[in-house]
Amino acid sequence: MRFSGILPHDSLDIGPQAFNVKGASAHDPANKVVPRDWLSRVASSEPRCSRSSSIARAQIPLVVLHHFSGTTTEGAFPAASLIQAADGNFYGTTADGGPSGTGTIFKMSPTGAVTTLHTFGDIPDGDYPYGPLIQATDGNFYGMTSGGGPNFGGTIFRMTPSGNVTILQTLDLFGAGGHSPSRSLIQATDGNLYGMTENGGASNRGTIFKMTLAERSRRCTSSPSRTAPFHRVGSFRRQTETFMAPPSAAAAGQAAVGLGAAPSSG
Questions:
Q1: Which of 93, 120, 148, 183 could form a disulfide with 129 if both were Cys (CB 3.0 to 4.6 A apart)?
Q2: Backbone angles phi, psi at 42, to 5 degrees
């Protein structure tokens, strides 16, 4: 329905069926009023869509497969999209719920049976996963948490189809590599994983990074350390940053160097 906000003079009427328009006196010295049925009059004057119209309306049924309870056994407030894995099941994350109230990973069958595969616990493995999972060519699932972890800046993790979670990288809230990833990873044609952090980096405006699937990692059954480096492609101020892994990882031959030459000190 279209309505310009200006009614023709013959539609203005003063009588028992009329009502005052708020603020009418400011724009209408005669303080004219609008009939109570003005809306139905305008609506009835508009052409109605016929069956031959290019605009079609249909009531498509919606079937609810699952209701999240937010209890200690499952998650709440899913903020990311589902993915359908190679096994035909659906996998996703919730940004809340679980025993610690910091998010979960779940599996859902095509019929709607939901199984919680992992619950996040802040310090060991991160919290609040706002992004979706991806299933890489190795058959495992990869994702990120927006916060938590030993360095409080979020984590990058891998999960097997059975639900075993491994922390690949813990992001530092105060480090140069970026922190607080809140979106999805992708696997590119070179086989590497690419992603972004929302904050941190040289200008505290976020970073772009890549990670190879061959990197060594640690299970999150104990507090992990930053032993799985990732390659920071660049920050949103300079695209030739160098990010070095901790000495323990460098000693193991896992130093991560950003793409391009490092900026000269002079």
A1: 93
A2: -65, -40
| Residue 146 located in a structural domain | yes
SS3 4: coil
Query: What pLDDT does 59 receive?
Result: 83
DSSP code for 74: S
Cα dihedral 121, 125, 131, 136 in deg (nearest 10): -140
- The string of DSSP codes covering 196-241 is EESB-TTTTS-EEEEE-TT---EETTS---S-S--EEEEESS-S--
Q: How many CB atoms lie within 10 A of CB 61?
A: 4
Domain assignment present for 259 = no
In a domain, 90, yes or no: yes
What is the C-alpha to C-alpha distance for residues 137 and 186, in angstroms, rounded to an integer?
11
**CA 44 to CA 244: how far, in whole Å?**
70
* Stated pTM of the model: 0.64
Tokens of 229: 């480096």
* Domain contains 81: yes
Q: Are 90 and 161 a contacting pair, CB within 8 Å?
A: no
Number of domains in the chain: 1
Instruction: Return the pLDDT at 40.
Output: 62
* Containing structural domain, residue 121: 75-251
Complete edge-to-edge strand list for the sheet that includes strand 186-187: 186-187, 193-197, 207-211, 231-235
First to last CA, the chain: 66
The amino acid occupying position 126 is G
